[in-house]
Design brief:
It is built from four helices and seven strands; from the N terminus they run ββββαβαααββ. The protein is an alpha/beta fold. The chain has one domain: Vaccinia Virus protein VP39 (Rossmann fold), CATH 3.40.50.150. It has a seven-stranded mixed beta sheet with strand order 3-2-1-4-5-7-6. The chain is globular, with a radius of gyration of 15 Å.
Amino acid sequence: MSDIFLNLGCSAFKLPGFINIDIDESVEPDLCIDLLKLDDHFDDNSVDFIFAGHVFEHFKKQDSQQLMNICFKKLKSHRNLLAVVPDYTKAIKEHVNTAERIIMAGGDHLMLFHKDRMRDMLFSAGFRHAYHIEDLKEIPYLLVSNTNDPRPDHWQTGFIALKT
């Protein structure tokens, strides 16, 4: 059986070797579904790695936590979730107009994140090891060579969480 790697909310950022998932069929994902319906497509303890780049902030808090819980259930033991979100505490250090664009994203973001909130949500989902990544340039999944690479900005924050 081959490894299963998920790229949640992929948009135009497709990762080779991953199942690229998005609700927007116009981005032509490998799997077009609502992320809260992952239970219908993947067994518990069947996924080897999950990348969620700029996904959780697009859900209300309860739904974001539900998605985090689903990710935990889907991962095999000793496998990782890598999550990247905009960090409002970093963004507010910017010029007000820039911070507003980052924090609210024209109304697309439904909740605010910072490293403590993300860590709390990971622990609530069942992860026992969650490591804050200060320098996102060190994440290889953000440096895949294609034209749709998201370039890490200093106002983003990331975590790698291990299911044990």
